[in-house]
Description:
mainly alpha
Amino acid sequence: MKDYFDENCTYPPEYFHRRFRMRQELFLRILNDVKAYGDYFVQKKDATGRLGLSSIQKMTTAVCILAYGCAANHYNEYSKIGESIAIKCLKAFCNVIVAMYAEEYMRLPNEADIARLLEEGEQRV
Length: 125
């Protein structure tokens, strides 16, 4: 995780965009929204007092599976998450995203949206 999320991360922001198919600011905004929505993505201690998986580990796994269509066990060495937990992360992430953003982003465009998009397109030419 220190490759992209530490203060002195290994890779520059362009690499983050290439790997996750979004800017780091957007990733972190979604992460904060997902953590605020429910407690699945919040890091907790287990029964022995050890910290469990971080929210970044869980969301990174879900986003990479969605972005690249890889098998759930493909990321277990990089993010230290097993296949069954990766599947749970993916399902939880998809459910939270649909619940939080469906009304705003997953709808058919209305007349105002079409007018705004046409205006933006004209300004770019």
